[in-house]
Amino acid sequence: MTAKPPTLGRMVNGFDPAAPSDMDERTREDIARRQKLLGPAYRLFYRTPVQVDHGRGVHLYDRDNNEYLDAYNNVASVGHANAHVTDAIMAQARRLCTHTRYLQDGIVEYAASLLPSFGGRIASDGHMMFTCTGSEANDLAMQIAMHRTGNRGIIITSEAYHGNSYLTSRFSPSLGEGAPLGTWVRRVSTPDSYRIPPAEIAARMVREVTAQIEDLQRRGEGIAAFIADSVFSSDGIYTTPVDILPQVARVVHAAGGLMIADEVQSGFARTGERFWGYQRHGLDPDIVTLGKPMGNGYPVAGLAVTHDAVAAFGRDRRYFNTFGGNSVAIAAAGATLEVIRSEGLQENARDVGAFMRQELRNIMADAPCIGDVRGAGLYIGVEVVHPGTMLADPATAARIVNALRERRILISATGHDANILKIRPPLIFSRADARQLCDALHAIIRDGGQT
């Protein structure tokens, strides 16, 4: 495996301030001022960072009004500065913004509208709880799981990312070696459908989960939960096969643990085929966590949970979050959901995603550096390898990402070796937008990954 630069930790596609660059003087001054005021922990994207001033739809613009095609930011899932969402936020902010300890119509109406979409046990007797971020949602989900089971053990996939709180960072190995895992955390292999025969992946994961549960039990931890992002995005975007999670769930439930579906990245119609990514697997989870695209950029997140999973937690403890589920947050979430449904964005993700994957496979036919194209809906991974091998080639992937940036098209990279191009645009991405991206990518590859 290729080691990451120590100055960047595990962040992929990161700006390295020590690297030579031909940046203009104003950009250098902006970076220096940012580093002085914000400190060393913040990171920037790209070899030459992008300055942004405003956005509209699938585009970002810098202060000189240069246009960038945004094929990365799933947070603005219904498009940057969506009028319906921003109008709802402003109207509610003018009316009231307060916490959840008062009776308010908005929060219960939103829960009533969203809960049926989960299906299974959650739709029949489940509840919603609200936070500000996906990290908080995963933190709360794990607190519930630990309380429900009386156990502490957590099982994750090899390169998972589930948050940056103290607890969630302890089961987010993609943060790198500088963020140590909890002693009660166990990892299982990435479901690498490129290198492992797909028919073997589920059985392999079940074996590994079983072994890790046994180890946790021997050490007195037990199993609280298995948590997974159903597109395994930080592992490298693996969307097939779709028989993995229900088989894992049977093992986890038999040992007394809960199944948590982390939909912070793969939910809200992103995968096109289904509204929630875990539904592609036929999974009936105990808890579903939500975040990122939920409010189209406004900080709102939460979880949906079966009554059985949360009953004891609700009896023995109380939950309160000053800003989680506040009046304006719920207005943003409700308006975003309305746009997804009224504009048919799940169907758009399915259709445009299928079109783009086919275009990328057409490029792959005469691009030996592309080993695999995979994805679901508008969540797509392109594996960059050394030609004639399955060996990861992060250097070429980085060149491609930065060459696209120079053409004002924004994507990123993911996976253990940062060799998988990560394409994750707003759900309003069109075939014309996909064609623009693919044409630029094809030209870059023909030029050997140069700008």
From TrEMBL:
Residues 1-26 are annotated as: Disordered. It comes from the Bacteria. The keyword Transferase applies. This is Diaminobutyrate--2-oxoglutarate aminotransferase. Keywords: Aminotransferase, Pyridoxal phosphate, Transferase. The gene is dat_2. It is an enzyme of class 2 (transferase). InterPro entries: Aminotrans_3, Aminotrans_3_PPA_site, PyrdxlP-dep_Trfase, PyrdxlP-dep_Trfase_major, PyrdxlP-dep_Trfase_small. Belongs to the class-III pyridoxal-phosphate-dependent aminotransferase family. Pfam families: Aminotran_3. Its EC number is 2.6.1.76. One of its GO terms (molecular function) is pyridoxal phosphate binding. Its cofactor is pyridoxal 5'-phosphate.
